[in-house]
Amino acid sequence: MLSRQRICKAPANLAVEVWIPDGGTVVHKNEFIRQVAKDSGVPQTVVAQVLGSAVRVVARSLIAGQKVVWTGFGTFEMRTRSKRQGINPQTRQRIMIDATQTPGFTASSTFKERVIDQQQGENGVAAPPRPVRPTSAAHTSNLDPALLAGTTEDSANPINDGNL
Predict the structure, then answer these.
(1) In Å, how far are 41, 107, 141, 148 from 152, measured between CA atoms?
(2) Are 95 and 68 in contact (CB under 8 A)?
(3) Tens digits of per-residue pLDDT, 86-117?
(4) CB contact set of 40 (below 8 Å; sequence gap of 6+)
């Protein structure tokens, strides 16, 4: 369920509103840095520097026309918005809006599954186990057969400890 919340003290007709989950909050940059520092045991100043550097690297890569793939998290890429018709809000006249490029992010299926599983676990709803994705014989020949027989994706991935 989503609720609408005002995020500034402007008159109601000018206020900017965002939709957030009921009972949820928005985690801003400083709070995010605090949480990462606490979770990792690294000082907040270092976390802030690393986060800033990561954002700059992603931006430079996108500017250079590269796609940034962060396995287990998602993909950053430039997306093209087609030329389209719009309406000038001051004159109500139809106008043509040129094609533009905008940065976009797509969460990986692994990340989505982990978030949904965690969310369902908090709500008391048990999520059914997901089967291991099929892989080619070349990739499975050096794996333990016990891992391939009816295990879930999370338990078959030694990198994924199940914690977000």
Answers:
(1) 31, 20, 18, 9
(2) no
(3) 999 999 999 999 999 999 999 999 999 999 98
(4) 47
Residue 148 CB neighbours (<10 A):
13
Q: Which helix (H) or strand (E) holds 63?
A: helix 44-63
Q: Tell me which DSSP letter residue 41 carries.
A: T
Residue 43: phi and psi, rounded to 5, are -60, 150
Distance separating alpha carbons of residues 40 and 161, to the nearest angstrom: 15
Q: Which residues contact 159 (CB under 8 A, 6 or more apart)?
A: 72
Write down the pTM of the prediction.
Answer: 0.58
Model pLDDT for residues 109-163, shown as the tens digit of each residue:
999 999 998 888 776 665 555 555 555 554 545 555 554 444 444 444 444 445 5
Q: Is 90 exposed, middle or buried (0-12, 13-18, 19+ CB in 10 A)?
A: exposed
